Amino acid sequence: MDVVKIQSLDQDQRNDLINRRLRGESEQTFHTQLKSVFLQSPEIAGSPFLLCLLIKVFKTEGTIPTSRHHLYKRLVQGLLANHAVKLYKTTAGSVDDLMQAQIQIFCKHAPEFLQAIALVCHLRLNQRDFQWGSREAQTQIQTKMQEIWSNDELSLEDMGTSLLEPSTVDLLSNVGGSQYRFSHLTLQEYLAAKCILRLYYDDMQKILDQLSPLHDRWAKEVAQFVACMLPDEKFTAFCQLVFQNTDDTGVHCELVSDFLKERGGSEEVHLMVRNRLQTIRGTESLIAGLCHPLLDLRNRVLSEMKKFETPPNPFSDGTTTRLRQIAEDKCDVWHKRAAAIISLVQIAQMDHCKKCDGRADTLAWLFEMLTSFLDSRFESGSDTNHQIYFPLVKGLGILLKGQFDDQNLHVDASSRREDDALVLKILQTSARLGSLSEAIADLELFSTPLLAWLLDQSVMLVDGSWPARHVFFMCKKISPDDGEQVLRLVQKLLKRIHALSFNQTDLDSCNTALSCTQERFGRKQMLSPMLQLLDAGEADQRVRMLAAAKLLKLHFSSDLHDLCDFCVASIICELARCLLEDVGHTSSITAEGGATRDKTLLAHILDNICYGQTPSSD
Amino acid sequence: MDKHPVLIDYLLEVLDGGSTLPGTESEASPIQSIVNRLKERHPWSETPVLEEPIEKTLLRKGVVADPIAVSSKQDQQPAITLQLKDVDSMMVRLCSRRAPAPGNLARDEWPPMYVCARLWVQSDLMEFKDMLKHFETPEAVQASNDLLGLKSPWIQGDAARNCKQWAQEVCESLKLEALGRFLVPVLLKYICDRFISDPTLVINERAELANVFQQWKPADAEQLIEKQILLKELCIGRRESNMPAWAGRISQTKRVRDMKEFEHLNQRLATCGQSDKEVPYVTFMYGSCNISKSHV
After folding, report:
1. Long-range contacts from A596-605, C-beta under 8 angstroms, 24+ separation
2. Burial (0-12, 13-18, 19+ Cβ within 10 Å), B282
3. Quick one: DSSP state of residue A428?
4. Which of A124-133, A155-164, A312-321, A559-568 is most confident?
5. Cβ separation of A295 and B124 shorter than 8 Å?
6. In the predicted structure, residue B284 carries a pLDDT above the cut 50
7. Of the residues A210, A314, A393, B101, which has the maximum number of CB atoms within 10 A of its CB?
8. B-chain residues within 8 Å CB-CB of A2?
9. Contacts of A206 (CB under 8 A, 6+ apart)
């Protein structure tokens, strides 16, 4: 069987529905009113059912209710009034004074009747459908209703006859024989809540007794309606009673939080929720949750912290201090340390922690950890320490880029500028960088001040201590408008390839960086510095330069002719001859065949780059 | 086995080389076939070729079925407990040091290692993709899928048929030192999925689980928070906090309920027509709703 799922309406669908039901000026008024409702309760405007109800109420009254229970109240009133008119018109033909009086009595008592049915069905019998008029109904529903029906003007039977037997009121539907149900479960829940309030308004404990356990699926939504219909002072008293009940899990905190979300804030109750949750979790449990090896569990604990803002200041109450201790403790298991790091940075990103400088402190602490990472790795010689690198870099990424897994936290632009300044400050003041440079490379950090600082550090860029993949990343990111910086970066890159200390593992990154630079800024930037380097260093260094020239398909003679440097071709030829000789000497140490092969290869490259031609078969 | 170097060499060559085991294609028993081949191949060897060590090696490698294991598998319990413990001890090893390279593990340790790696992926504390690739075998994938589904042979019983027994077994598995920690999110996901599939049908199941977990005496703070979170989930489900993935799920549940409610309204629409006047207030139009069809 195919089952359909009803999604919330999106903006276009909402507008379409409103447009079809309302036309003209009233549509604009409705949209204006809906905006404020949407801000307060987005669910009302998104639900097709509730939006239809809002439109209907608006058509009748010109305004739309701002809360769910007000909407249901209008709905019930309207439906009953319609039903009463239809009912008495049918029996009497026209509405005279007597009928009018009957209508009034009906409209006065019908809500009580519906509420009583709803309460009995929903909370006493836990069922949707009910029977009316049968013997079974006498024993089941009506007996229980009788206990709460205290109306002298109309009997239960009379009300049942008026509401159910002639034709079903739109609130109720006949589902076969003498079986009925409320058209929507939420209607039953709303009416049950109204009944509870009518019967026990002055006794909060009795209200709570009716709804216990609060998290029961039959009680939860009714409790939500009850809480939203209570005035402020009674709501506070109600919540106090809720928190007096046993709860070792935090369920009540979640439920009260839902009440607050729908009915609006009450600082006193917010505080109650925070304190209660803090007591339930306790410090040890909280830390254990934050250091749990599994993401799902950590996220749930962090989610609670963020939602309930508890503890209110983890940076001063010892929570983050404890996490730092765990992260720094080399004797602890690696996954606990790693989880502590990730949780710590996520806490630092939380809105309620921003006011206490926690983020800046955590960032500085992370830098410190990264700086000392290599030392501690060598000292301890432990494999487990290696596994701390991943969370450290990930943590730095979360702080600097605002990544928060799937929680969509973003760092605003001003924070980002502060971060850039902080990164730079740390780089400028650190005597050693440890793994910080690797972390910056892994995170693909780039900013103009960072680039300027790096270009001033010629040693780090040239001797290979700065990660080649980040040099490539900078080549991708550098602005073409800044010609001087581009030239300097190209020079550094070529010097790195030419350097004696060149690490072959960097070759791919360096070659990609060269290709990227040529593609973005053209080859002319490279010719001059490359020519200088071809004339310097050992044979190996010059060979690397030639290989780079080959990679970029540079033709020095023709390319430099464009620069009006006519003697370049002869210089290149001379350099090539010297290089071939040098390579011959170097290779003579090795096998004869190897030297011949190297020389042939070089001759091929040289012919290619010097003259732009393929060598002869000789 | 050290007394049979020729045998060991030959067996390892055959087994690790991935070639067909000699004799398995013929009607002769694999063990007898190996003995015959060994005698043919090394006629000069003075080492006696005995069947027993060959058999043991083959059993260890899992090439031939262990008759004792086969019979005990029929009554399941002992073998399963052992397997959970195997994975648990592997998990303890992984908790304290880096993952071993495939070459450093015996082949029969690969499936539990793969299962552990699958569970560790949920940690998001390091990369496990390579490890998963190295140890992946169809059997290991199946075993880990069964464990992630909290199904037999790991967890005996059927949640739908005998929920109490099943819940007790799950609770016992949570008490395992290392593996237990990793089963908590598996169980949380299981509860969510079951709840989404049919909120009303799983009420008893959730209540049974809640009863069993209430009895669980946590050994430390870690287990305490796990118990609290599990019970909270069983009571009300995770709230719509700030996690889009979950927010989608809980909304979906609400939608399912709405859908059931609207089913009845739609019937009324069909009988009363679709005019505003005839079906006041509770009108509901397919065209104005964002309805997606799916097979549940």
Report:
1. A602/A543, A602/A546, A605/A546, A605/A547, A605/A549, A605/A550
2. buried
3. H
4. A312-321
5. yes
6. no
7. A314
8. 293-295
9. A199, A200
- Residue B55 pLDDT class (50, 70, 90 cuts): low
Contacts of B55 (CB under 8 A, 6+ apart): B31, B64
How far, in Å, CA of A203 to CA of A220, rounded? 19
Helix (H) or strand (E) holding A81: helix A68-92
**Residue A324: per-residue pLDDT:** 95
- Give the residue on B whose Cα is nearest the Cα of A307: B241
Residue with more model confidence, A162 or A96: A162
Region A233-244 average pLDDT: 94
Is B221 within 8 Å of chain A by CB?
yes
Q: What pLDDT is attached to residue A37?
A: 75
CA distance A508 to A537: 22
End-to-end CA distance of chain A: 80
Report the chain B residue with the minimal C-alpha distance to residue A60. B281
Cα–Cα distance between A575 and A559 in angstroms, integer? 17
HSE-up of B180 (CA within 13 Å, CB side)? 18
Q: What pLDDT, on a 0 to 100 scale, did the predictor assign at position B15?
A: 44
- The answer, yes or no, to whether residue A165 has pLDDT greater than 70, is no
Helices (H), A213-318: 220-229, 232-244, 251-263, 267-290, 295-308
CB contact under 8 A, A78 and B281: yes
| Residue that is written with structure tokens 């700030």 in the block | B242
Q: For B213-266, what is each residue's pLDDT tens digit?
A: 888 899 899 999 999 998 988 887 644 332 222 222 233 334 334 444 444 444
From edge to edge, which strands make up the β-sheet containing A130-131? A130-131, A179-182, A172-174
A260 vs A40 pLDDT, higher one: A260
List Cβ neighbours of B163 (8 Å cut-off, separation of 6 or more). B204, B205, B208, B209
Which one-letter DSSP state was computed for residue A608? I
Domain boundaries, chain A: 11-190, 201-312
Dihedral sign for Cα A90, A92, A96, A102, please.
negative
B222, B251, B268: residue with CB nearest A173: B268
A36, A72, A333: which is closest to A194 by C-alpha? A72
Query: Lowest-confidence range among A235-244, A498-507, A544-553?
Result: A544-553
Give the pLDDT of residue A95. 59
Contact yes or no for B224 and A250 at CB 8 A = no
**Alpha helices, DSSP H, located in A120-155:** 135-137, 143-148
Cα nearest neighbour of B97 on chain A? A384
ipTM score above 0.85: no
Over 80: is that where the pLDDT of B189 sits?
yes
Q: Is A352 helix (H, G, I), strand (E, B) or coil?
A: helix
Provide the residue ranges of all domains of chain B, joining segments of one domain with +.
5-64, 75-148, 163-236, 253-288
Query: Which of B122, B188, B280 lies nearest to residue A170, judging by beta carbons?
Result: B280
Beta bridge partners of A146: none
